[in-house]
Specification:
Layout lengths: L4 H47 L11 H10 L4 H33 L2 H14 L8 H8 L3 H25 L3 H9 L4 H39 L4 H10 L3 H29 L4 H4 L5
């Protein structure tokens, strides 16, 4: 005689399996769906506000007009040249500030005397806003890329430097003592002990610096008039073309999202061995 409890157990297992599949599907596609709905809701609200004149369409044109201009920009050489100028300043600024931050950070962080000697100077210079230096940079370099680089490097250098300091302070003293016992020189200690510990902090600093660099590049172009997306926004403002301004702002935002995604991808690939990535979390 069959056990009457068996069908109930099988049914419960099937139900649990279906629920697990639904939960997995939601975890996979739910956040994306909610994100799309949020964007569509925002665009719908923007269209209503503009069409019904709640905000003057001269100041806030409807998204249909803005996106028409956004797409048409792709056909203009001037637009791509401006994007190229902005990305060139961004890339040079990030690379130079990262190299300088790592070299200076490792040199200072490896010496207690240098840490004490530079502490007050760093704490004085670090909080100075980079944008406050724009007039000085403009006087020195004029409306050229040197102005952008000076501002970007100044701001991003501190971001990278502080992350390097955090990385060095996280070093395992036992590992350092072992390296000294094995008579490793400074370069070998940096390569085999310091750099692996430093790398997760450095990648976090690099990702933050990349975003900051883009913001400052466009800000300098807008204020000083160096070639790039910021200068195009200034030209659109002078010509009174609100759709062009909004289209360029959207372009800048998408550029920032793309840079952040690329930096996260590089971070995941570089730190594939680190627990923060293996555990599905980023620093």
């Amino acid at each position: 005689m069959a056990n009457p409890a068996i069908p109930a157990v099988i049914s419960a297992r099937r139900s649990a399996s279906v629920s697990a599949k639904r939960r997995g599907t939601w975890l996979k596609f739910g956040p994306v769906l909610l994100g799309i709905l949020g964007i569509l809701g925002f665009l719908g609200l923007w269209q209503v506000v503009s069409v019904f004149g709640i905000v003057d369409p001269k100041h806030m044109p409807p998204p249909t007009v803005v996106f028409e201009r956004f797409v048409s920009n792709f056909a203009y050489t001037q637009f791509w040249v401006a994007v190229g100028h902005t990305l060139r300043a961004w890339l040079l600024g990030v690379v130079i500030s990262t190299v300088a931050g790592v070299l200076v950070g490792v040199a200072i962080g490896s010496s207690r005397i240098l840490i004490r000697a530079t502490h007050s100077t760093i704490e004085f210079l670090r909080p100075i806003p980079a944008v406050a230096l724009i007039p000085i940079a403009a006087l020195i370099f004029g409306p050229r890329i040197g102005t952008e680089l000076m501002i970007i490097i100044y701001a991003c250098f501190w971001v990278v430097l502080i992350q390097v300091f955090y990385g060095i302070s996280d070093l395992d003293k036992v590992a350092l003592d072992t390296a000294r016992t094995l008579r490793m020189n400074f370069v070998q200690r940096v390569r085999y002990v310091i750099f692996p510990t430093l790398l997760p902090f450095l990648m976090t600093g690099l990702r933050l610096a990349a975003t900051v660099a883009l913001i400052l590049a466009i800000s300098v172009e807008l204020i000083v008039g160096t070639p790039g997306l910021g200068q195009e926004v200034a030209f659109a403002q002078i010509n009174g073309s609100a759709p062009a301004i909004y289209a360029l702002i959207i372009t800048s935002g998408l550029l920032g999202i793309a840079i952040n995604m690329i930096m996260r991808f590089i971070e995941r690939k570089t730190l594939f061995w680190h627990e923060s990535v293996r555990g599905g979390k980023t620093a």
